[in-house]
C-alpha cells in the first residue's frame, strides 16, 4: 500500500516547483533497460540545485580551489567570490513513477521541502516535456559547513543562502 507521502509526490505538477530547467537527454544517458540510468538523475539533482545556489544564493563552488575565478579565456569570471560555506550531500532518495529515455526532453523542477538551521532538503520533480504527469520525484539534502573546518558553523547557514532558499520553501511551514 502506498503511503500518503508517496501519493502526494506522484500527484506533483510543474506548478509545485518554483525553479525550472530544461534538459535534453543524451544517447549515453540510457542504461541497458532502455531508460535513464539512475546516475543521470543524481546529475540532474546536482545541476538544478547548484544552479539555484549560484544564481539565487550567492554561492560560488569554483572559489573552493580557485578564489579568483577565471573564464575560459583567462578573464575574471562574473561569479562572486562566494561564501565561507559549502553544501555537503548527506542524503538522496528517488521515487520513480514512469520511465524516461533518450531522446526525451526533460523539464526539471526544484523546490525546498525542508529548511533547517544548517541544512536544506530539496525536492526535484522530473517531467517529460509536454506531459503533465511527474515521472520521478527525488529528494536531496545538503548540510552547509565551513570550508576550512568541514563542520557546521555556530550560526548555521549564511543569511544570503537562507534568504535565497526561503524563496523556494514549499510549503512555508517546512522551516525547522
UniProtKB/TrEMBL annotation:
<dbReference type="Pfam" id="PF03061">
    <property type="entry name" value="4HBT"/>
</dbReference>
<dbReference type="InterPro" id="IPR029069">
    <property type="entry name" value="HotDog_dom_sf"/>
</dbReference>
<feature type="domain" description="Thioesterase">
    <location>
        <begin position="34"/>
        <end position="132"/>
    </location>
</feature>
<comment type="similarity">
    <text>Belongs to the 4-hydroxybenzoyl-CoA thioesterase family.</text>
</comment>
<dbReference type="InterPro" id="IPR006683">
    <property type="entry name" value="Thioestr_dom"/>
</dbReference>
<dbReference type="GO" id="GO:0047617">
    <property type="term" value="F:fatty acyl-CoA hydrolase activity"/>
</dbReference>
<dbReference type="InterPro" id="IPR050563">
    <property type="entry name" value="4-hydroxybenzoyl-CoA_TE"/>
</dbReference>
<keyword id="KW-0378">Hydrolase</keyword>
<protein>
    <recommendedName>
        <fullName>Thioesterase domain-containing protein</fullName>
    </recommendedName>
</protein>
Amino acid at each position: 500500500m502506498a503511503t500518503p507521502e508517496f501519493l502526494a509526490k506522484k500527484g506533483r505538477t510543474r506548478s509545485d516547483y518554483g525553479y525550472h530547467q530544461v534538459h535534453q537527454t543524451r544517447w549515453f544517458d540510457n542504461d541497458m533497460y532502455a531508460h535513464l540510468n539512475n546516475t543521470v538523475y543524481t546529475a540532474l539533482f546536482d545541476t538544478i540545485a547548484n544552479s539555484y545556489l549560484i544564481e539565487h544564493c550567492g554561492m560560488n563552488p569554483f572559489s573552493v580551489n580557485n578564489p579568483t575565478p577565471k573564464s575560459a579565456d583567462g578573464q575574471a569570471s562574473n561569479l562572486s567570490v562566494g561564501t565561507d560555506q559549502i553544501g555537503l550531500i548527506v542524503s538522496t532518495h528517488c521515487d520513480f513513477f514512469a520511465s524516461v529515455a533518450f531522446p526525451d526532453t526533460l523539464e526539471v523542477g526544484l523546490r525546498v521541502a525542508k529548511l533547517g538551521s544548517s541544512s536544506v532538503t530539496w525536492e526535484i520533480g522530473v517531467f517529460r516535456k509536454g506531459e503533465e504527469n511527474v515521472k520521478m520525484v527525488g529528494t536531496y539534502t545538503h548540510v552547509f559547513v565551513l570550508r576550512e573546518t568541514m563542520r557546521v558553523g555556530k550560526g548555521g547557514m549564511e543569511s544570503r543562502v537562507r534568504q535565497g532558499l526561503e524563496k523556494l520553501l514549499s510549503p512555508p511551514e517546512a522551516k525547522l
